[in-house]
């Protein structure tokens, strides 16, 4: 597979991408106030005096938000800074009550780390790749303006004001929209494993600022643009495709790329200028004098580390070592809920490879059909374990298992009970099977002749006929053996 | 019957406890003085009902035997402290009419201790000023007059009560309240105390919670008491200080029993006299007072040594970078969006509203400091100003640390002059800023420091001596202050003309 290139009139161009992902920290309370953080609450009901920046109010860091950011840093194997500090980013806007955002410019909580994305031929990622992460810092979110409530006024909702965000800044290590997509998906997966962000891009819990520049391969970095607040993987990829193409056309027509902030329009898949470098704010960053530097002790760090779950890469490796195909291992570990469900299934003693096949085909197929997430799967891992156990010990065949599973989905009953009630237990009774085989051979003299004449592929035909005659309840292994004997 | 308004906090507390008078009588006597002193303009809002309610509760508590530390004591509250249900303005047009629905930690502690509130005291707007002339509600006039202006006191030049806690200082000096809260960012408790012949202490940074105090410069702002005696300051401070989980810079330390440990016996203590505080061309009365103070502390048993605080001359410039920088950011919240003044011209957009509101809502001194602060934090200037000023701040702290290797407290004048006339310095901000020259270093270092009245100058105006202590050693500061108080015998008071 070749590298991703934009073909211009003057030759091929390489795209250079860096992402700043803003991830809302999962926490019951905001970063510096005790206010709640429920999504979708009535406007201005999740607002404390601190969030509204009333006179004399002071921020106090929320330990849980810091803990979540540290755990996230550990999950990307990053440097955790035991000494960090909050800075004020000053600007005026109606959704920013304090007139400044408390962020971390000079001394972020988390330093350099990295994230692995896997090769994906179909998506155009030739090989596994490590994407560098520059830093993670924590900061306050702003409120929200509503412009459609009044003909001449805008309304302000401060529910989100002060909610904790992690800004996860990658290095400019990505070279294609596909890599950027894989990066966001992987990052989202890790955040959800760690439990530090719900990764819900529709609700704005995760959004990305997309930095894009282009260059001729081997040249130094070109001038980048930053497209703000892109809120889905698809839009991130579209932004990059559009920006890269726009920049190449601009450069090839003799123009220059302005270092500017842009906005993505999801309806058209295009970006437009939000503000140019000349209009860039002077944020007048300085250390927040209301807050002391954040100092983390070893006990706190140890607790953070011990509380980390098994992460996707490790889980994937464990699955593959247990004989599960690389593809299935990837599918099973992509979402933390699937992986948790699957782990619970393995704990029932299910054979990993068979269980993985069953989950990725039967279970996911059924969920897809029902339009449900694994989180609200009608069948528990324990129930699934019981079903797979019946297959493994020969009580039912694979095809009967499918029937039983359908009944389980409908009724919620246990597999063994269904098999018992419906009389689906498979038979290994050689006498009965031999009788049916004799019947099948008698009914199909032509096929029998052809088989004996050397057309051995017809063996499957006889197996099928026998199974059909026995309504699928015959033990396939026994059928095979007896058929071979009969045809011998 | 004695004039209850001449009593100190300790005397009111003890007299009330002993049944010599009721708390209601005390509250009514002070409220009457407040009502009769409009000419001083010390209060922005008078709250006799608050004082009376607390007094009634105090009398009931006495009957029930459940007296609290400040039962029966009415006080003044600087209008920088947010008070639940009572207008809080920071002496600004911006917050005119703003009534908080919350109570600052410090004021709540005082109410919990049984104190009542006589009113909200005037101050320099957002605590920025040294003369009280930046208040939107008009300047406070000091009760003091020079002794050289002819027989009619009222007609003599009006003097500044100091700032920013000038309402507090004037009200105490004029017996409108026995004590008041102040806040000190770069001398705002000590300088007005010195100008009006009263005492005031700025504790170690972090002793008093800043929660609910309208912020000026967060890394410097500290609340503290102002009163007529050192003992009263100790009593008040005990009931203002304490760890507050709502203030991340609050000190998580027990509050000592400062009053009980008061002692003016300084045997074994060493007092440092900073060489760099001897300013050329300073009013000779100031130096004379300082020398007298040195003699008093020697008399109290202390050894006196000369010390050096080599970076003193950089303190004022550093302060006037750091404080405005923080202020420029702290005051960004006054934007007309959620509370306070909103000036929305016809057809105006958001930016127009910001501009109109802030142009109208802030006075010239506040604007000057916001401009300075915005400038020093700007890209390209940040390192040259803010970073450099922070380095200076560190060096000043080290100066003190080194000095405290050889002494226990430091003695210096509080201000370089006695009270000046209103209007004398308003046209020259730098001359005004120089008022803080002796006060600012302790603020930058976060150290406890107090002013006690030490003498009258040739014009009959009070002068204050400043004692600076080690971090957390308010006791050492108070004890040295007490030694001066006992020996200075400062009993002068402003003759009533209002």
TrEMBL record, chain A:
<protein>
    <recommendedName>
        <fullName>Aspartyl/glutamyl-tRNA(Asn/Gln) amidotransferase subunit B</fullName>
        <ecNumber>6.3.5.-</ecNumber>
    </recommendedName>
</protein>
<comment type="similarity">
    <text>Belongs to the GatB/GatE family. GatB subfamily.</text>
</comment>
<comment type="subunit">
    <text>Heterotrimer of A, B and C subunits.</text>
</comment>
<dbReference type="InterPro" id="IPR042114">
    <property type="entry name" value="GatB_C_1"/>
</dbReference>
<dbReference type="InterPro" id="IPR003789">
    <property type="entry name" value="Asn/Gln_tRNA_amidoTrase-B-like"/>
</dbReference>
<dbReference type="GO" id="GO:0016740">
    <property type="term" value="F:transferase activity"/>
</dbReference>
<comment type="function">
    <text>Allows the formation of correctly charged Asn-tRNA(Asn) or Gln-tRNA(Gln) through the transamidation of misacylated Asp-tRNA(Asn) or Glu-tRNA(Gln) in organisms which lack either or both of asparaginyl-tRNA or glutaminyl-tRNA synthetases. The reaction takes place in the presence of glutamine and ATP through an activated phospho-Asp-tRNA(Asn) or phospho-Glu-tRNA(Gln).</text>
</comment>
<dbReference type="InterPro" id="IPR004413">
    <property type="entry name" value="GatB"/>
</dbReference>
<dbReference type="GO" id="GO:0005524">
    <property type="term" value="F:ATP binding"/>
</dbReference>
<keyword id="KW-0067">ATP-binding</keyword>
<dbReference type="InterPro" id="IPR014746">
    <property type="entry name" value="Gln_synth/guanido_kin_cat_dom"/>
</dbReference>
<keyword id="KW-0648">Protein biosynthesis</keyword>
<keyword id="KW-0547">Nucleotide-binding</keyword>
<dbReference type="GO" id="GO:0050566">
    <property type="term" value="F:asparaginyl-tRNA synthase (glutamine-hydrolyzing) activity"/>
</dbReference>
<dbReference type="Pfam" id="PF02934">
    <property type="entry name" value="GatB_N"/>
</dbReference>
<dbReference type="InterPro" id="IPR017959">
    <property type="entry name" value="Asn/Gln-tRNA_amidoTrfase_suB/E"/>
</dbReference>
<keyword id="KW-0808">Transferase</keyword>
<dbReference type="GO" id="GO:0050567">
    <property type="term" value="F:glutaminyl-tRNA synthase (glutamine-hydrolyzing) activity"/>
</dbReference>
<dbReference type="Pfam" id="PF02637">
    <property type="entry name" value="GatB_Yqey"/>
</dbReference>
<dbReference type="InterPro" id="IPR017958">
    <property type="entry name" value="Gln-tRNA_amidoTrfase_suB_CS"/>
</dbReference>
<dbReference type="GO" id="GO:0070681">
    <property type="term" value="P:glutaminyl-tRNAGln biosynthesis via transamidation"/>
</dbReference>
<keyword id="KW-0436">Ligase</keyword>
UniProtKB/TrEMBL annotation, chain B:
<dbReference type="Pfam" id="PF01425">
    <property type="entry name" value="Amidase"/>
</dbReference>
<feature type="active site" description="Charge relay system">
    <location>
        <position position="78"/>
    </location>
</feature>
<dbReference type="InterPro" id="IPR036928">
    <property type="entry name" value="AS_sf"/>
</dbReference>
<dbReference type="GO" id="GO:0030956">
    <property type="term" value="C:glutamyl-tRNA(Gln) amidotransferase complex"/>
</dbReference>
<protein>
    <recommendedName>
        <fullName>Glutamyl-tRNA(Gln) amidotransferase subunit A</fullName>
        <ecNumber>6.3.5.7</ecNumber>
    </recommendedName>
</protein>
<feature type="active site" description="Acyl-ester intermediate">
    <location>
        <position position="188"/>
    </location>
</feature>
<dbReference type="InterPro" id="IPR000120">
    <property type="entry name" value="Amidase"/>
</dbReference>
<dbReference type="InterPro" id="IPR004412">
    <property type="entry name" value="GatA"/>
</dbReference>
<keyword id="KW-0808">Transferase</keyword>
<keyword id="KW-0436">Ligase</keyword>
<dbReference type="GO" id="GO:0050567">
    <property type="term" value="F:glutaminyl-tRNA synthase (glutamine-hydrolyzing) activity"/>
</dbReference>
<dbReference type="GO" id="GO:0006412">
    <property type="term" value="P:translation"/>
</dbReference>
<dbReference type="InterPro" id="IPR023631">
    <property type="entry name" value="Amidase_dom"/>
</dbReference>
<comment type="similarity">
    <text>Belongs to the amidase family. GatA subfamily.</text>
</comment>
<keyword id="KW-0067">ATP-binding</keyword>
<comment type="subunit">
    <text>Heterotrimer of A, B and C subunits.</text>
</comment>
<comment type="function">
    <text>Allows the formation of correctly charged Gln-tRNA(Gln) through the transamidation of misacylated Glu-tRNA(Gln) in organisms which lack glutaminyl-tRNA synthetase. The reaction takes place in the presence of glutamine and ATP through an activated gamma-phospho-Glu-tRNA(Gln).</text>
</comment>
<feature type="domain" description="Amidase">
    <location>
        <begin position="25"/>
        <end position="478"/>
    </location>
</feature>
<dbReference type="InterPro" id="IPR020556">
    <property type="entry name" value="Amidase_CS"/>
</dbReference>
<keyword id="KW-0648">Protein biosynthesis</keyword>
<feature type="active site" description="Charge relay system">
    <location>
        <position position="164"/>
    </location>
</feature>
<dbReference type="GO" id="GO:0005524">
    <property type="term" value="F:ATP binding"/>
</dbReference>
């Amino acid at each position: 597979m070749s590298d991703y290139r934009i073909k211009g009139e003057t030759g091929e161009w390489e795209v250079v991408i860096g992402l700043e992902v803003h991830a809302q920290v999962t926490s019951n309370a905001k970063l510096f106030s005790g206010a709640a953080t429920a999504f979708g609450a009535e406007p201005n009901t999740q607002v404390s005096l601190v969030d509204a920046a009333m006179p004399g109010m002071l921020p106090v860091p929320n330990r849980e938000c810091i803990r979540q950011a540290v755990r996230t840093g550990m999950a990307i194997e990053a440097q955790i800074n035991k000494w960090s500090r909050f800075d004020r980013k000053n600007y005026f806007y109606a959704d920013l009550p304090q007139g400044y955002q408390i962020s971390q410019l000079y001394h972020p909580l988390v330093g350099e780390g990295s994230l692995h994305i896997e090769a994906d031929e179909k998506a155009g990622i030739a090989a596994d790749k490590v994407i560098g992460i520059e830093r993670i810092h924590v900061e306050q979110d702003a409120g929200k303006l509503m412009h459609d409530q009044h003909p001449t006024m805008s309304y302000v909702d401060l529910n989100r004001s002060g909610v904790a965000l992690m800004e996860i800044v990658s290095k400019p290590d990505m070279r294609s929209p596909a890599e950027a997509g894989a990066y966001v998906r992987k990052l989202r997966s890790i955040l959800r494993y760690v439990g530090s962000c719900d990764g819900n891009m529709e609700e704005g819990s995760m959004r990305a600022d997309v930095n894009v520049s282009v260059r001729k391969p081997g040249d130094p970095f070109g001038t980048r643009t930053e497209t703000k607040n892109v809120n889905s993987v698809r839009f991130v990829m579209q932004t990059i495709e559009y920006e890269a193409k726009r920049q190449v056309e601009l450069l090839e027509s003799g123009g220059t790329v302005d270092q500017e902030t842009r906005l993505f329009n999801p309806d058209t898949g295009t970006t437009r200028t939000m503000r140019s470098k000349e209009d860039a704010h002077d944020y007048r960053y300085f250390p927040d004098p209301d807050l002391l530097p954040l100092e983390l002790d070893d006990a706190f760090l140890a607790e953070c580390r011990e509380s980390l779950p098994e992460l996707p890469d490790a889980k994937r490796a464990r699955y593959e070592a247990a004989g599960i195909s690389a593809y299935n291992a990837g599918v099973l570990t992509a979402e933390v809920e699937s992986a948790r469900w699957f782990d619970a299934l393995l704990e029932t003693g299910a054979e990993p490879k068979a269980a993985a096949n069953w989950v990725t085909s039967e279970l996911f197929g059924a969920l897809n059909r029902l339009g449900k997430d694994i989180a609200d799967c009608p069948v528990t891992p324990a129930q699934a374990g019981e079903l797979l156990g019946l297959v493994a010990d020969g009580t039912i065949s694979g095809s009967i298992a499918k029937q039983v599973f359908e009944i389980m989905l409908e009724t919620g009953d246990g597999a063994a009970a269904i098999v018992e009630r419906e009389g689906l237990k498979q038979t290994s009774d050689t006498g009965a099977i031999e009788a049916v085989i004799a019947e099948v051979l008698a009914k199909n003299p032509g096929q029998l002749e052809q088989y004996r004449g050397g057309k051995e592929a017809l063996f499957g035909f006889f197996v099928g006929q026998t199974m059909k005659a026995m309504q699928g309840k015959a033990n396939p292994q026994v059928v095979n053996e007896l058929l071979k004997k009969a045809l011998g | 019957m004695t004039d209850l308004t001449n009593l100190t906090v300790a005397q009111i507390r003890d007299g009330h406890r002993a049944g010599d008078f009721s708390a209601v009588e005390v509250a009514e006597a002070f409220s009457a003085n407040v009502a009769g002193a409009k000419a001083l303009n010390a209060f922005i809002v008078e709250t006799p009902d608050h004082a009376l309610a607390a007094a009634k509760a105090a009398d009931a508590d006495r009957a029930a035997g459940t007296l609290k530390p400040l039962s029966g004591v009415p006080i003044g509250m600087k209008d920088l402290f947010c008070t639940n249900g009572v207008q809080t303005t920071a002496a600004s047009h911006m917050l005119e009419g703003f009534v908080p629905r919350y109570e600052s930690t410090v004021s709540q502690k005082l109410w919990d201790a049984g104190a009542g509130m006589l009113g909200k005291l005037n101050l320099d707007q957002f605590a920025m000023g040294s003369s009280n002339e930046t208040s939107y509600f008009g300047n406070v006039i000091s009760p003091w007059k020079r002794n050289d202006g002819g027989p009619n006191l009222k007609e003599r030049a009006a003097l500044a009560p100091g700032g920013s806690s000038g309402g507090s200082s004037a009200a105490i000096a004029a017996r409108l309240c026995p004590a008041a809260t102040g806040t000190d960012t770069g001398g705002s408790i000590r300088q007005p105390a010195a100008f009006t012949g009263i005492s005031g202490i700025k504790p170690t940074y972090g002793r008093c919670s800043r929660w609910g105090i309208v912020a000026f410069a967060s890394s410097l702002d500290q609340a503290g008491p102002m009163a007529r005696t050192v003992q009263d300051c100790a009593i008040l401070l005990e009931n203002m200080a304490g760890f507050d989980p709502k203030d991340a810079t609050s000190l998580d330390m027990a509050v000592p029993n400062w009053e009980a440990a008061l002692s003016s016996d300084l045997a074994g203590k060493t007092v440092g006299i900073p060489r760099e505080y001897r300013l050329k061309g300073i009013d000779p009365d100031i130096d004379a007072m300082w020398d007298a103070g040195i003699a008093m502390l020697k008399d109290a048993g202390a050894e006196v040594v000369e010390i050096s605080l080599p970076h003193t001359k950089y303190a004022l410039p550093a302060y006037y970078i750091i404080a405005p920088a923080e202020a420029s950011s702290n005051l960004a919240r006054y934007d007309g969006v959620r509370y306070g003044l909103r000036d929305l011209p016809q057809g105006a957009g958001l930016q127009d509203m910001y501009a109109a509101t802030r142009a109208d809502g802030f006075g010239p001194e506040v604007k000057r400091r916001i401009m300075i602060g915005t400038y020093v934090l700007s890209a390209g200037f940040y390192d040259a100003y803010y970073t450099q000023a922070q380095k200076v701040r560190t060096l000043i702290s080290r100066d003190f640390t080194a000095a405290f290797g050889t002494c226990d407290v430091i003695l210096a004048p509080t201000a370089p002059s006695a009270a000046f006339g209103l209007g004398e310095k308003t046209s020259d901000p730098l001359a005004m800023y120089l008022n803080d020259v002796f006060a600012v270093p302790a603020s930058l270092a976060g150290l406890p420091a107090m002013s006690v009245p030490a003498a009258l100058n040739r014009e009959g105006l009070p002068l204050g001596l400043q004692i600076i202590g080690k971090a957390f050693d308010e006791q050492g500061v108070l004890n040295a202050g007490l030694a001066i108080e006992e020996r200075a015998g400062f009993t002068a008071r402003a003759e009533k003309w209002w």
